[in-house]
Design a protein that fits this description.
Length: about 200
């Protein structure tokens, strides 16, 4: 069997100057973005798994939330909602944050699944993200702040409140017995007769 010669391959037309400059510019932006957090977020320079699998992102972000809010239940329905809510600018960074947590987890503890770490290890990974400075630290700090505000204030479940801090949420009628005294007569003044003497 004869090997194909180099000349047998279809050749592309030569690049003109403009196309060559465009390719160099794109390559330059890509190389610069590797070390630039905003560019990595905008250009989605992180594993595609996080864009294609919302469940994977949710699991990683749930592990993040339970690390920054000790005692939070990982199975609460709105646990990570603040981090992905389009009402907040941080939602654009949710997949990047999940990917970055996994990258740091692999670098520090040898496992690419941040959610597989124990709480102390997850805390160390988050501290490393905060210590990096720049945009990365702002993303981590913003995620922590937003998560704690949403969780403790119960912004997605105002009737439930936050059991961790003993807040019951908005007022709910709990029956007449919960809002009245069992013997209200003891709070009333003694009756008096027309001449002012006790009856």
């Amino acid at each position: 069997m004869d090997l194909l010669r180099l000349t047998d391959w279809p050749s592309e037309p030569p690049l003109d100057r403009r196309a060559a400059l465009r390719r160099l510019a794109i390559a330059g932006v890509g190389l610069a973005a590797v070390g630039c957090t905003p560019m990595r977020v905008v250009l989605h320079l992180y594993p595609e798994d996080f864009d294609e699998s919302p469940e994977l992102t949710r699991l990683i972000l749930a592990a993040f939330v339970t690390a920054v809010i000790p005692g939070a239940d990982a199975h609460e329905p709105h646990l990570t909602r603040a981090l992905t809510d389009p009402a907040f600018p941080l939602a654009r960074c949710a997949e990047y944050l999940a990917a970055d947590l996994c990258k740091r987890s692999a670098g520090q503890f040898g496992t690419a699944r941040f959610d597989a770490l124990d709480t102390a290890q997850r805390t160390e990974v988050i501290k490393a993200g905060l210590a990096e400075g720049g945009t990365t630290a702002r993303i981590y700090g913003g995620a922590i702040f937003l998560t704690q505000i949403a969780y403790y204030a119960g912004i997605y479940e105002d009737t439930r409140g936050c059991p961790l801090i003993g807040w019951e949420g908005r007022y709910q009628f709990r029956g007449i017995a919960a809002t009245t005294y069992t013997n209200p007569q003891r709070f009333l003044a003694r009756t008096v007769s027309a001449d002012g003497n006790p009856a």
